[in-house]
Amino acid sequence: MGRGQLIAKTVPTTQTVPSWFIRLSGIKGCEHRQQVQSGGADYGELILHCDATLPQTETWQRALNRVATLGGVIMVLFIILALTLRTSLVALTQLVDAYRRFLKDHHTRVAVGGAREIQQLGSAFNAMADEVEATLKALAEAQGRLQKEAELNHVTLMSIGDGVITTDPAGLVTQMNPVAEQLTGWPVMEAVQQPLTEVFHIVQEGTRETAINPIFRLAEANTVTALETHMRLIARDGSETPIEDSAAPILRENGDIIGYVLVLSDVSEKKALQKKIGWQATHDALTKLPNRALLADRLNQAVARNDRSQLLLAVGLLDLDEFKPVNDRLGHACGDQLLKLATARMLETLRATDTLARLGGDEFVLVLSDLTSLDEAETIFGRLLDRLAEPYTLDGEVAQLTASLGFTLYPLDQTDPDTLLRHADEAMYTAKHSGRNRYQLFDAQHDQKRQARQEQTKEIRLALAAGEFELFYQPKVDMRQGRVTGFEALARWRHPQRGIVPPGEFLHHMEDNELGSKLGRFVLDTALGRVAEWRRAGLNDWSVAVNIAPQHFTAPHFLDDLKDAIARHPDVPPQCLELEIVESAAIADLHHAARVIAACHELGIRLALDDFGVGYASLSYLKRLPVDVLKIDQSFVRDVLDDPGDLAVVEAVITLSTLFGRDVVAEGVEVAEQGVLLLRLGCHIAQGYGIARPMPADEVAGWAATWQPDPSWALWANTQWEMSDFPLLVAQYDHQRWIKSVLNTLDGGRLSITQQELTNHRACRLGHWYENHGRRRYGHLTTFQEMEPLHAEVHRTGQEILQLKAEGRLAEAETQARYLTELKTRILDSLASLQREVMRTGVGAGKNLPA
Ligand code: C2E
Ligand code: CA
Ligand code: CA
User: Which domain, by its residues, includes 217?
Assistant: First the structure.
């Protein structure tokens, strides 16, 4: 056993501990028993008894103390809490109050103070109030604007000149403005909720069919429908107004249709104006006749109608003759009056179905339909012209007026209205040119030719531009010297399909226009270029002759063209160029021609008068035209051996040239005898198929290198015979022709000599010569005398050949033909020796010239 203190305590009895506390505290009394032994001696038992009252009381006491302290603390806490709550409550009450005031006055704010939370609350309230106030302000403004807009819309709607009707999506009227009310005859109060078709009834102007209501047209497209014209609105009382309308859906932002708006305008005035303008646009103000525009319409209709009727339609164009002088003399006011009177007279003579239109000025068009014959048209036109020609009295003055009228008949002239008018116009010009105060039917054939010509001119122009033209060259030779002197440049068209086209087929399409000059420039340039090439090849003697068309020669730019061409070929001396002009070009304006020729001479260029003898050339012309060369026309040269008239011309031209000191060239030399004759006559420059045909440029040099002059020319080269000896040559040539004609019949040819010439050897041209000129001049020569029996034999044989042929004895005829050829040679030999004898002895008047 440990050492311990044993304290005995007494429990104060004043303090009683409640039993619940004792129970609750769990403090109980206890008893402890212990045997007391010592040294093995048992001292007894010690019983220790503990009473619980004391600890219970102490614990109770302590608990009571604690509770008292706690209560105090709680009291204090309560007091604090109550105080706090009181302040918060004031703030909250203020907030509530502020809220109430805010509803009435948005400027209301609370003072921010007190507890943090209360402060936050106050700030939050104020912020919210600011926001609400701003929003409300914006709202008010927006509302104001809306209000204004709505007012404006309303005023607009009410005062707008157009009628406006709105409907709901189902098409029931929701609103309409006074104009719509007035146009439809429906007061808005009654119209509202009525179907639109009821209030707004429209028909097509022409057909009077009920028109589709515009909002139905919208069913397809949700946009504004096009303005519909030519509509008539039938009002409630049945009255009508021409209107134009358009409709549009009223859409929400999301695209939903919330109705339709229909705008309709009264177009009565517009229509009236249109009508007026329309009339002015289609009529001539002075005569009140249809003008050109309306005429086109009428003419189209007339042609279309005529196609159905199968009758004739006359389209006439009338032009007053000499109206301008009358107009000038009487004054314009009277002129106008005259036009009106003339119009009235024309209308009198025309039928109601005819159209008279004024094209302007003093030009009128007549369209006469349903004619059965040309006669009928002519009768009407004749009457009309007669009536027009009657005197007019204007302000006491008497005026006379006639007209020229051209017309065409459809469908004889099967063409379009425009061309009909053009044809009438052309015929009118013909009427004017043939003396005025008459009518003239259009000549379709003539027009076709003219058109074809135009086409061809166009084709030629393109060909020229495309380089399809070129020059051929025909030599000119000096028969006496047997040398080439130059070439004439002759235009050719190398047509892609037709081949070489000669100038005869294109030159006449180049007349009267710039095209001729164009060709002229081309020819000049090309020919000079060719001379330059010849010269480069050492062929320095050759000149070139270029044909100049009359219209080019007389053109003001001719000399410039010429100078340009020369300037482009500085290496060609102008002396190498010769220009050939025909008389007609020269004598059209002699002064001008003479000046141009003089200018050419200044440039060093020679001039030839081409085709000399065929035109009007006379001594006086020749005197005034300083040309250098006369070219005897080939038509005279061709027949110079046959036709004494041509021979006389050729001779005269050669004489003229000698007289005037001009050179002379003969063209169209086809046989050597022509050359001989020309030589004998004194013309030694010749050109013709007998020498060479025109040839392409690249053949020229080759031809010149191989060409040989005819031997007979050399024979006569230095001899000039008198005219009296020419018949010998002619006789020679004639004899050959006679033989040829007879032999030709064996090949089926026709006998080209007369029966008399065949049978009588004194009646043919050789016989004539023999008995007359020949006998007189050569009768003393034996050669001459020996010819007579030969000649008689020729005629006998000729007759026999024809006889044999007629009997079908062809073989015998052939034998005789060979004999005839023999005889011919003998006669020609005789003639040749006669010529030689003449030359040798100077018998006759022939004389030798120095070489
Ligand atoms: P032209 O000036 O009288 O030319 C002579 C014409 O006669 C040429 O015809 C030529 O080929 C032809 N001719 C030449 N020798 C003979 C012959 O022995 N017998 C026959 N029967 N005819 C012969 P082409 O080339 O057809 O020219 C015809 C006309 O055209 C020319 O007649 C001339 O007036 C004109 N011409 C030709 N080329 C041009 C040119 O470039 N410009 C102009 N303005 N006219 C030209
Ligand atoms: Ca010529
Ligand atoms: Ca000629």
Answer: 160-272
